[in-house]
Amino acid sequence: MSWKIILLLAGLAVAALAQELTVEQWTPRSTLVVDEHLVQMAKFPVIDVHSHHRRNSSRERLDEVVGEMDKLNLQVLVNLSGGTGVRLEQAIETFRHGPYPDRFAVFANLNFGGIDDADWGTKAAAGLARDIENGAQGLKFFKNFGMRVRYSDGKRMTVDDPKLIPVFEICARENIPVLIHVGEPSEFFKPHDEFNERWLELKLRPNRKRPPEPSFEKLIGERDRMMQRHPDVNFIYAHMGWHGNDLKRLGKMFDDNPNLYVDVAAVLYELGRVPVSGRAFMIQYADRILFGKDTFTPSEFPYYWRVFETTDEYFDYYRRYHAHWQLYGLGLPDDVLKKVYYKNALRLIPGIDSSAFPE
Fold this sequence. Notes:
With 359 residues, the protein is α/β, with parallel strands linked by helices. The chain has a single domain (42-296, 332-354), classed as Alpha-Beta Barrel (TIM Barrel), CATH 3.20.20.140. 36% of the residues lie in helices and 8% in strands. It has helices spanning 3-19, 59-72, 86-95, 120-133, 165-174, 199-204, 216-229, 247-256, 268-271, 277-284, 301-309, 334-348, and strands spanning 46-51, 74-79, 104-106, 139-141, 178-180, 235-237, 260-263, 289-290. It is globular.
């Protein structure tokens, strides 16, 4: 067989293989040539208000985490997985009484066991009061609340269930913030078809598909009624409340509710695709937005610094199944960066040492 025929067959084989690529496998490299400004360390010290760490983390693990924090200019991580009761005490001992007491804050969580009891809300409030006395600096609701927490008869505990009123009264009295995750991205509630913007994620993570009930809007409505019922409590909606794709809606929510704040955890892909309106939004509502990341993966933080601090164009996001599009830098002013990175968190979360941060 001549070398020309061999080359032809090889070329045909490569072409055939290329035609068999799936959407998941297709990861094209960009041919765009533009300036790049990779940012490994944040310009100002950062408080990450949305992080999760094991309450019994070893000294070696804490050394490792703090070492990575130093490289990124992360001054404080807020551990939202503090638990309640004995578990909360263990988390406080590990993170607040351990070798790095100024580098961590800890939020408490509720125990939804026994919610059928008529006095569950009162008991939960009393437990939260003890947790705060023992060092908890805020309260975190996980996403199971509103979707999977149910009474014994199968009825869903709604986000605005009146049984929680005593809990929020404690939050108001003690002036601690509530960071709450309700629902999932709206596309998770819609048909998994060719029009779904999160098609790839739902293909790779099918367990994230939500049933039609409770709907996205029903969950969001319950959440917002709960927040409005307690104007003396500062609420931080996790993941921009899943409204990063509709900044006008979120802006109106800010305008109507002075006790509402959001974190940007795991939704960088929303802000990074709207460099004009996203920048204007971040500047206008700089007092209401807090930095958060969610999973502690050190290699992913620099993407946030690059979006917030540079005007770079058309660069990758770190998790393609979240966003099949490219990101753009917002080039935020220093005063906005300071508010998002640490000033808003210092204002809302008690017990964080402010001496490590510039004015």
